[in-house]
Design brief:
Layout (H helix, E strand, L loop, with lengths): L23 E2 L6 H12 L4 E5 L8 E7 L4 E7 L5 E5 L20 E3 L3 E2 L6 E2 L5 E3 L18 E7 L2 E5 L8 H10 L11 E9 L3 H7 L6 H4 L6 H10 L5 E5 L2 E7 L13 H6 L29 E8 L3 E6 L3 E11 L2 E10 L5 H23 L1 H8 L6 E2 L6 H19 L8
Antiparallel strand pairs: 1-19, 2-11, 3-4, 3-6, 4-5, 5-10, 7-8, 8-9, 10-11, 12-18, 13-14, 14-15, 15-16, 16-17, 17-18
Helix pairs in contact: 1-9
Length: 426
């Protein structure tokens, strides 16, 4: 395993003095009143990722997204000119949900020429215009041009589809993303179209799960039984520190070194990993990404070997790039103060052989096992935070991104209550 310099104590938090070093309150993760403020202050103001352009391969392709935190559903569609658009998923006649199949709360996707309401048959073109009203002559001076679908601001960055539910966004999407995120432009996301999705309802606040993936302080303890004893014991005893953290506006990054699993002795890894040439870090045989060099924002610590970069986009979206040429996304969709829907999606360059497919499958199930371990503590954490026996908790230097998430959340809520816009990007 490669070695890298151990950062000195205080090497990260000290660079962001506005975060402080005092104990942190988790009241923002247990208060129903605070959650109601988050709905308006954050999720109706920030740009939210809702999918990828590969989900919309042709004109008429669409998918729906349930945004319970904003009390709405949207439909995202590629129109006849190829433009990606988003609309509130609501018929303008009497408010029926427009696009759904057997169960109105279940997301759906497909291809169509028009959207037709199940209730009274009103129709809408792919650009949102109302094109047909059943028995139109019975209405009183109705002009179909006044009753198109309600648009949602929509923008695409590097194939990622974002929406903004504000009447008018306070920033464009590139301005909101900022230089740390836009430095990923040119990464070959579009080549990785083999998609694996996990979704689960978690009985914990969305920020509690985000915290679980923002630090590696837990890894040697929580995940030690996921590895052979000869590998896990030294890791557990020595602990782990990532070599790079960064904060840019509301967004965060942690980058870390990796391992060359194929160079490890057999008793340092699981037999299945050797048989499949794969594991948690991905397939051992990296794919052809079609680029000579990766963008400047990738592997900012210049780790060799490089393991992963985890870009945490405020409020609830993570892009996790793996050194072996694949990536993960996480979404944390709040549904209440004490629960949310977690989505973990893996993206690979499409398999060409059975061996490559098996390697992808092993990475997918390995991710699931580690994800289940990360989630295993969340409900216990939520239940005891709600006891309010202790109101403030210490965070170490490695947990600087956790500190930032809660600080940033409070800032957005405070600015909303003051009627300001400064929290969007400072």
């Amino acid at each position: 395993m490669a070695r890298w310099p151990k950062p000195p104590e205080g090497s990260w938090t000290e660079h962001y003095p506005e975060l402080g070093t005092e104990d942190v309150s988790y009241e923002d993760s247990i208060s129903p009143e605070f959650f109601e403020l988050e709905r308006e202050a954050i999720f109706r103001r920030a740009w939210l990722n809702v999918g990828r352009v590969e989900q919309l391969p042709r004109a008429g392709s669409y998918f729906t997204k349930e945004l319970a935190v904003a009390r709405t559903s949207i439909v995202v569609v590629r129109d006849r000119e190829g433009t990606v658009r988003a609309f509130h998923n609501l018929c303008r006649h009497r408010g029926n949900k427009l696009v759904w199949q057997d169960f109105p709360g279940v997301e759906t996707s497909g291809t169509c020429r028009q959207f037709t309401c199940k209730y009274h048959g009103w129709r809408y073109d792919l650009d949102g215009a109302c094109s047909f009203v059943q028995q139109e002559g019975e209405f009183f001076g109705l002009d179909k041009g006044d009753y198109g679908l309600v648009p949602v601001h929509c923008a695409v960055w590097e194939g990622f589809v974002f929406v903004n539910l504000a009447e008018e966004p306070e920033q464009s999407l590139p301005e909101f993303l900022g230089p740390m995120i836009t430095s990923l432009e040119g990464y070959p996301f579009e080549r990785m179209t083999e998609r694996w999705l996990y979704r689960s309802e978690v009985k914990a606040n969305w920020k509690i799960y985000m915290d679980a993936f923002q630090e590696f302080y837990h890894a040697p303890v929580l995940h030690q039984r996921q590895n052979p004893a000869k590998f896990a014991a030294p890791w557990r005893d020595a602990g782990f520190e990532a070599p790079h953290y960064r904060i840019d506006g509301p967004h965060r990054l942690v980058s870390t070194a990796g391992i060359r699993a194929w160079e490890l002795a057999d008793d340092m890894r699981k037999p299945i990993e050797g048989a499949c040439r794969s594991g948690l870090f991905g397939p051992w045989d990296a794919p052809d990404l079609g680029v000579d060099t990766l963008p400047s924002g990738v592997n900012p610590a210049h780790c060799d070997p490089w393991g992963l970069d985890s870009f945490q986009l405020f409020p609830n979206f993570t892009i996790l790039l793996w050194g072996q040429g694949w990536y993960l996304t996480y979404h944390y969709w709040p549904t209440a103060a004490d629960r949310h829907v977690f989505e973990g999606t893996l993206y690979f360059v499409p398999s060409r052989t059975a061996r490559e497919r098996v390697a992808h499958e092993l990475s997918a199930v390995s991710f699931k096992e580690f994800g289940l371990q990360d989630a295993s503590t969340l409900e216990a954490t939520q239940s005891m935070l709600e006891s309010r026996v202790v109101s403030r908790f210490p965070l170490n230097d490695q947990e600087v991104l956790c500190r930032h998430l809660h600080k940033e959340t409070a800032k957005w809520v405070d600015d909303y209550l003051r009627g300001g816009v400064g929290a969007v990007r400072s």
